[in-house]
Write a structure and sequence with these properties.
Elements: H1 2-38, E1 44-48, H2 56-64, E2 69-84, E3 87-96, E4 111-112, E5 125-129, H3 130-136, E6 143-154, E7 157-171, H4 176-179, E8 182-186, H5 187-194, E9 201-206, H6 212-220, E10 227-231, H7 232-235, H8 237-275, H9 277-285, H10 290-321, H11 323-334, H12 341-344, H13 355-372, H14 374-381, H15 385-388
Parallel strand pairs: 3-8, 5-7
Antiparallel strand pairs: 1-9, 1-10, 2-3, 2-6, 2-9, 4-7, 5-8, 6-7
Length: about 400
């Protein structure tokens, strides 16, 4: 019986630990990708749908008056084609103000070979995503031609506008979507190419990125007509929704391990009831009620579940907090690399244990263990003393 109870404790502990470790690693990857994305994009974007923001400084003062907004910077954004020789690639052209942009993003930390100060107005310099530069086969100092949809109508038909830019450096954000499609230029150069007449909107940094959706909704209530605010979670809604679905499904699948442990607990208690039938019958003849007998086995199963959950939470947190060192040790021992940096841009296994995951896991696992004790306890309470003691 002790061995079977130990196996029940081990099964529950393994299930709880596996849930905590896997969800912590998924949280770590999500946080890593989110931080890389927010190093390039803004927490909130305020966009004008009625024309350029000729007086963007005034609007910036208005939005930064909100206690949750730390800084604001203007931007111009549009789609274009970049050509170098016979190679052509589509790109997201983002015009920024080098003086204000560092206040709202960490783009400077993701540049190689240059910084934002090289984007001087009128010089038409461009910072390309590293993968985009590789596709175009260009290096710093090379020329690329930028073609935008806005153009002129001539006797020969519509002619798109084209301007030559000089590559000044690379953007290496670690996020393929941006590194393969983003081109950063000075806001005045972008306004000249796209003929926007000024800034199209503002990029905002907030004090707490998790509060960005709430702050965006609050700003919407005070912004002038035709000006909208969207937060980073809305701009990447599809990606974050997919991650949440994967995390939820992984949790459900791994919870089956805890369910197996609960079935093991049922088996252990049923065998205990079978072995102790004579003892149960004697207690009944001495006056023990059905409720008293039932409580004995409920308490036994509760202790097994409680110990299993406690051991699982402890082991899961211990591994989750040190998963990077554990994976590094396994890589050194086996001579392999699970996350090649040149492919994933992450050299170590990230982990982010959260109470919002750990507490529900512990509570549901304990409740499942508690429910598993009810049937064996009920069977024990229904033991008939005469039948159990007939052959004693």
């Amino acid at each position: 019986m002790s061995f079977i109870s130990a196996m029940s404790v081990t099964s529950i502990a393994l299930g709880v630990a596996a849930l905590i470790i896997v969800l912590s690693v998924m949280n770590g990857f999500q946080k890593e990708v989110r931080d890389r994305m927010l190093g390039v994009i803004a927490h909130i974007e305020v966009t004008s749908a009625v024309g350029p923001l000729n007086d963007w400084e005034r609007l910036a003062e208005q939005v930064t008056a909100h206690e949750g907004v730390a800084a604001a910077a203007p931007y111009v954004q549009g789609q274009g084609l970049l050509t170098a020789g016979s190679t052509m690639r589509g790109a997201m052209i983002k015009g920024i103000d080098p003086a204000h942009e560092p206040k709202v993003s960490d783009i400077n930390e993701h540049l190689t070979g240059a910084d934002l100060t090289v984007l001087e107005p009128g010089k038409f310099g461009v910072l390309l995503g590293r993968d985009l530069a590789r596709m175009l086969r260009v290096r710093p100092g090379d020329k690329v031609a930028m073609m935008v949809p806005q153009g002129n109508m001539t006797p020969a038909g519509f002619v798109p506008r084209m301007k030559q830019f000089t590559v000044k450096g690379y953007l290496v954000s670690g996020h393929y979507e941006y590194d393969s499609s983003m081109a950063i230029v000075n806001i005045k150069d972008a306004a000249a190419v796209f003929r926007t007449g000024g800034a199209q909107g503002l990029r905002l940094r907030v004090n707490n990125m998790d509060e960005a959706p709430v702050i965006a909704r609050e700003l919407m209530q005070t912004l002038p007509y035709g000006i909208y605010a969207t937060d980073w979670s809305m701009q990447n809604r599809t990606w974050f929704a997919a991650v949440q679905v994967e995390k939820r499904m992984m949790g459900i699948i791994l919870f089956l391990i805890v369910l197996v442990g609960a079935f093991g607990l049922v088996s252990a208690l049923v065998m205990t009831v079978k072995e102790k039938q004579a003892d149960i019958a004697i207690l009944r003849t001495l006056g023990a009620s059905e409720g008293a007998i039932m409580r004995i086995f409920v308490i036994q199963g509760t202790i097994v579940g409680l110990v299993g959950v406690a051991v699982g939470v402890g082991a899961g947190l211990l591994v989750a907090e040190n998963v990077g060192a554990i994976v590094s040790g396994i890589e050194s021992l086996l001579g392999v690399q699970f996350l090649p940096k040149e492919i994933y841009f992450i050299s170590s296994m990230p982990s982010d244990p959260r109470l919002s995951d750990i507490i529900p896991i512990a509570v549901f696992s304990f409740l499942l263990s508690l429910v598993a004790t009810l049937y064996p306890s009920w069977r024990a309470a229904r033991t008939q003393p005469a039948e159990a003691l007939r052959y004693e």
